Amino acid sequence: MEKRNGLRVILFPLPLQGCINPMLQLANILHSRGFSITVIHTRFNAPRSSSHPLFTFLQIPDGLSETQINDDPTSNVMSLLAQINRNAESPFRDCLQNLLLQSQESERISCLIDDCGWLFTQSVAESLNLPRIVLCTFKATFLNAYPILPLLRTQGYLPDSDSKAGDSVLEFPPLQKRDLSRVFGENGEKLDPFVHAIVDTTMRSSGIIFMSCEELEKDSLALANEIFKVPIFAIGPFHSYFSASSSSLFTQDETCIPWLDKQEDKSVIYVSLGSVVNITESEFLEIACGLSNSKQPFLWVVRPGLVLGAQWIEPLSEGLVRSLEEKGKIVKWAPQQEVLAHRAIGGFLTHNGWNSTLESICEGVPMICLPGGWDQMLNSRFVSDVWRVGIHLEGRIERKEIEKAVRILMVESEGERIRERMKVLKEEVGRSVKHGGSSFRSIETLANHILSL
Ligand code: UDP
Fold this sequence. Notes:
about 45% helix; 7-stranded parallel sheet; about 15% strand; Rossmann fold; binds uridine-5'-diphosphate; cytokinin 7-beta-glucosyltransferase activity; 13 strands; 6-stranded parallel sheet; quercetin 3-O-glucosyltransferase activity; alpha/beta; cytokinin 9-beta-glucosyltransferase activity
């Protein structure tokens, strides 16, 4: 183990799977550089401390009721974030203040690192004279658009007419006009104060850590430095250093792996829409029929709660389940990183959360893009239009479209060309985390920055 350097870093993840994974991976990266780690977390979606014996975990109340937690508050992420941002400030302040009071000369607390989605932490840190570094768990290109997001909503791009739907949003390439309404969702105006607060607090911070690398977005990283005027550290993909498995909030179905062992190389399409996206029952049926009709083997993660109004897969008829089971396997949660790395996986039908997108690139798995909203709209455009390593479904959750996309990707020559491009991208990104690569060097710079605070 790396020698301790006498400094402790306080981490505070947002309580969402896609935010907890990168924060705990970052904790591992910093720990391997000699920093001691304390993780402050909410009661809701508390990380499993027993999986991380080297870190200290401190739980604070989040004000959510039992009923809310049982009803899965992530089904409305905006309202969840607003609520915990309101409720957690005071307990967080008390907790941090206590830690600072108790800290010893022999192990000084050097800084707070927390998710850019926390709105109160910058003020709390400033009032306690503690530097704060922001962790951005999405693509830098998306954070760069935050200052103009409210303008884009009101500048006449919405509602989009069909004939203009495919036009680029000039201020926000490669996004298309049709993507904008799904970036904002139904009550876009409610996002404005949230977005403004993130821009303001990030500009006052002591730096931004991106789960990204120069090979993927060199210009956007340089632009982030210009916009936010703070040091930028692009040290990702984090999971290349430490797996996300240990921070999983759900029980992973390990039977996926022996099932994959029995399949041919690159024959299986992996299907998962992440930890937050919801779909309707009819969309669920379309996906099921599309997969079944494609005649390709598939591994499908149906998270309990994925389908609105259903517990799990009960909207599928017995006959359909039987026909699905001939070719595929349905699980509640998978060891995704291990699955994507398996030789049998040939494609990933994904919602393009940033973690999933990076994990797919790092394993060289081409994608079928079915983004749900927010930054997923941008990630999927990069996958399909810029890097050209995937097929975009353009929101058409229809059995014929799904069957067609699966067959193009898995059996046709176009799929082979996409796979070739993905191989090149995988190698480029892989270089960034190797000794001397851009992300590897940024970790060094970040460690020195924290030491200097
Ligand atoms: N994940 C997993 N098993 C699953 C589905 C997802 O371990 O069955 C992990 C995945 O590897 C990723 C995270 O959950 O690290 C999802 O993050 P992402 O940013 O892709 O999407 P979100 O859930 O935030 O929408």
